[in-house]
Amino acid sequence: MALRIGDDRLKIEGVVQVARDRDTIELTDSAFDRIKHCRAFVDKKIGEHAIMYGITTGIGELSEVFLPPDQVKEFQKYIVYSHAAGIGEPMDEEIVRAAMVSRIKVLTQGHSGCRPIIVETLRDMLNKGVTPVVCKRGSVAACGDLAPMSQIALVVIGEGEAFFEGKRMPARDALEKAGIKPAEFEARDGLACINGSNVITGMSTLQLTDAWRFIKTAEIAAAMTVEVLKANMLAYDERLHKVRGYRGAIESASNIRKMTADSEILAQKDKKVQDSYSMRSTPQVIGSARDTHRWCREMVETELNGVGDNPIFFPDEDGGTVLTGANFQGTPIAFPLEALGIAATTIGVMSERRSNRLLNKNLSVGLPAFLTEGAGMWSGMMLVQYTQGQLVSECRVLSHPAATGSIPAAADQEDFVSMGMTTAIKTRKIIDLSASVVGIELMCAAQAADFRKPLKLARGTNAVYECIRDHVPYMKEDRPLHIDNNKMAELVKSGEILKAAEAAVGKLD
Predict the structure, then answer these.
(1) Which one is catalytic: 238, 277, 400, 479?
(2) Domains and CATH numbers, the chain
């Protein structure tokens, strides 16, 4: 099913469907009407030899240099050439595709002044599977993601490189194979392609999607752990969380209750009056991650549906107005991504602490040391907690903010930059590493469940247990655990754990 872009509000799910599932896009007639109307105004101003940033002037520190009419068209090509200055390995195709969707939405607002052919070419590239090769690093996310967006713009005019049908090749060859004619930049077209924070916005749509699955899976892991540790479930009572009022905590506690509702283990009477913080604070902590995710989503969808560009044209106001500003600035996306990384790290920190309680015989309510039948001869799962410790330590380092690390550019004309790309890169890594921490917790909880037999797990947690056992067998004696660790990480990241849980108890909040 095609995603229609033009009039309706663009949501994260729509971007991800095009980026990952390779859905096609359609542009509405009204979107083209807005693009054409704005372009007519830009052409009028060019004909009047008006001074307009990046059209009849240079850019950055060179914005005071006025371009003669015979240079206006060629300048757009050179903008893209000079800004295609990234470095490193290519970004994943899904990131580039998400960035392209984000930029197309900006251009369809009718405030950027490019010609319709530019938007049509970007659309055709998405629909026919031509994905620009874009270096991973080089953007400071201030005047937008200039370096990576320029590599996308190069392919629009048949230059640079692209992926097509699984192969990397010159862009002109990819376009020809796909039946797309390269566009040719005229005034404003090049800068209109690149002057927004669309790569980090695209990255954020993917990360928010994965983080939401991770948050719910972390609740599933917590549910299984508190169950096998015979937790006092008063800490999850709905009244407790409603009286404080945080939506995320209310939802998180509800999900954990749903997962453990009919547990024979929890029906036993030997409960502590009060459990450790890592057990009874879970709804408050994961709930805070939920509330953070909600704010992040609001910020990202605001960006997706706004006009991140410079200059911005208002063709209908007082005969037309051109405003220069900083709507390309990446900080509104960098801050949410920083918060998302901190939230994911904190979930990992708490997951490791719960895992420790499963492994430590002094804390595990009767479970054997390191969850092994023969402690001494065998070390059991002792070392997986070491692995969690390294992962958590790395996440903590990565949680140091990049968004406070401005390094001025363009001879101090651009003297504050967001470093949003650095934030996006490290937040992606945090989510992946934290998912691995939670995967190890799930593996330990499944091993503990075997020691609680013949008492039965709840219906929800038992479905997760069976999913785990389909991939990771019970550990009777020591074996190399790196294989199991990686299988568990994949089960969390792929959503298979969440799918198993929801098949048993229904959709989690």
Answers:
(1) 277
(2) 3-196 (1.10.275.10), 204-505 (1.20.200.10)
